[in-house]
Amino acid sequence: MPTTWSRAPEEFHKIYLANTDAFYRLGGNQGLAKELDEFVTKCALSLWSRCGRLSEKHVAMANQIYSRNQPRPTWLLWGLTSAVCEEDVFMPPVFYWNLAESDAKRGTDSSRTFIRMLTNILLYLAAVDDDVSYAEAEFITECTDRLTAICDTNGVRKSRDGLNPLDYVTSGEPSFQQKHPQVQTSGGETAPTAAQEETPKPDFDELMAQLDDLVGLKDVKKDIKNLMNLVKVRKLRQENDLSVPPMSLHMVFLGNPGTGKTTVARLISGLYAAIGVLSKGQLVEVDRSGLVAGYVGQTAIKTQEVIKKALGGVLFIDEAYSLSSGGENDFGREAIETLLKAMEDHRDDMIVIVAGYTGPMEKFISSNPGLESRFNKYFFFPDYDGEQLMAIFRKQCSKNQYTLTEETEAAAVKLFTELYEERSENFGNGRDVRNIFEDMIVRQSNRVAAMEAPTKEDLMTVLPVDLEDPEEEEDPEEEEEKEEPAAPAAEKEEQE
C-alpha cells in the first residue's frame, strides 16, 4: 500500500522550512541553521542506506534539505550513493546536548519539540520512493530514542509524544546496504553483512600457512600456535561435557609501529572463526578517534557502535594507551569503561586486542584493575633487523614483479642494514620498507620513462640508482652569492 507521506521535493522544502523556522523561533537561535541542516542530511544518508534503492528522487529530495538563508545543496546521484554507503552511524549532535541542558535550566522543552520535528521530516524523507520500509522506520525510532534519552538524562520536562514511525511502515523490502554489501566501518575495515555472513568459515591450515610465511616473529608464531592448540582442546572438552577453567582470550600486542601487529590480529580473527570460537571472524580496527567523542555522553554511544560492528570477531585498538593519557576528566576513560562492560557481556563472541609501544601499554594496562584482569596474554613484536627488512623488501619486489640485479641486491642489503643499525625512536620497521619500495618505484618509473623504447625487462629491472635519493641541485642564485671578489688594494686602504 503506498504511503501517505510522499511529497514532491518542492513541497517537502516548504514543509522543511516551516518546521525549522518554527524550531528556530522556539529555540531562539537561527545560528544553528548550518549545523541543523548538516545533521538532518546525515540522518537522511543513514536513513536511505536502509531503503530499497536510490534514485534521482532521492537526489532531488537531498537538495531540498536547507534552511532559510542557507546555500542549496548540489548532490548528484553518484555522490549521494557513495555518501549513503559510508554513512551508517547515528550520533546526536553537540548542539542538541546544549539544547537539552538549556531546557533543563529554563524549564522548557524545545529539545523534545525537536524530536517531534525530526520524526516528521525523516518520515517524509523515507517516503521519497512511495514506501516506508520497516528498516527505515526502525532507524527513525532509534534516532528518536537516543535523543529522548539525552532529554531524560538532563531532566528535561516531559512533553507530548511524537508519531510512532512503525505505524507508517508499508513494506519490509531489503535495505540498500543489504543489496550492496560493501559497508565501511569507522575504523576503515569492511563490516560483515547478511550476505557475507553466509560465506564459508576461513580455512585454518591456510591461515596458519600465512602466519608461517610472515618474516621474523618467531616467538609470536610459537605463542599463537600454542594458544590455538589450547583453545581447540578447550572446545573439545566442552563438547564432551568436561570442565574447563576460566580463560580470557583478550590480548595485548607490544611493539613499535610496522612490526606486523595488525596483520597478526587479522590472522587470529580468522583462526578463531575457523575453529568455531568466533562466529564471523572479521577484524574491526580503530584508534582513539574511533572510540572517543568530543562531548560528555557521546563517547559511550560511539564506542558501542564500534563494539556492535566487532561482535563475532576481533576489535583491534591501536595505540590503546591514548585512552588513559588525558587525565581524570578525559572522555577516553568513558570508552574504557564501556569496553570493559562489553568484554564481559560478549566474552563468548568478541575478542579485544590492544596494541602499542611497550612502555605506554604496560602503564595503560596497570591503570585500571579491570584491564589487568581481562588482559593476561602478552605478545611482544620485536623490531625487524636488517636481514629481515631485506626479506620484506624482496617479497614486495617479487609480488609486484620487479627484479633486482646483483648490484641492486647488494645496495639494498647495505641500505637496510644501515637503516636498522642507525634506527631512531621513529623507526617504522615494515612501514619504512614500504616507503622505500614506493620511492624506488617512482625513481625507476622516471628512469624508464626517459628511455626511447623500454623493453619488458627494462620495466621490471631495478638498478642501484633507483634506491638512491637524487642529489640536490645547487640554486644558481646561491652560487653567485658564495664569495664576493676581494676589494682592490687602493680601495682596501681607503676602507682601513
Ordered list of secondary-structure elements with their pairings:
Layout: H1 9-27, H2 33-48, H3 56-62, H4 77-86, H5 94-106, H6 110-126, H7 134-154, H8 176-179, E1 183-184, E2 190-191, H9 194-197, H10 204-213, H11 218-239, E3 251-255, H12 261-274, E4 283-286, H13 288-291, H14 298-310, E5 314-318, H15 332-345, E6 351-356, H16 358-366, H17 369-374, E7 377-381, H18 386-399, E8 403-404, H19 406-421, H20 430-449, H21 456-460, E9 461-462, H22 476-480, H23 489-495
Parallel strand pairs: 3-6, 3-7, 4-5, 5-6, 8-9
Antiparallel strand pairs: 1-2
What descriptors fit this protein?
496 residues, alpha/beta, Rossmann fold, Helicase, Ruva Protein, domain 3, five-stranded parallel beta sheet, two-stranded antiparallel ribbon, 23 helices
Shape: globular
Quaternary structure type: single chain
In CATH, what is the class of the largest domain?
A: Alpha Beta
> How would you write the strand order of the largest sheet?
4-5-6-3-7
The structural domain count equals 3
| Poorly predicted segments | 174-198, 472-496
| Main beta sheet | 5 strands, parallel
Structural class per helix/strand content? alpha/beta
Intertermini distance: 105 Å
Write out the CATH superfamily name of the largest domain.
Answer: P-loop containing nucleotide triphosphate hydrolases
CATH architecture of the largest domain: 3-Layer(aba) Sandwich
The average pLDDT score comes to 82
Beta percentage is: 5-15%
Give the % helix: 40-55%
Q: What would you report as the Rg, rounded to the nearest angstrom?
A: 30 Å
Total beta strand runs: 9
Count, helices? 23
Using the coordinates shown, work out and report the CATH topology of the largest domain.
Rossmann fold
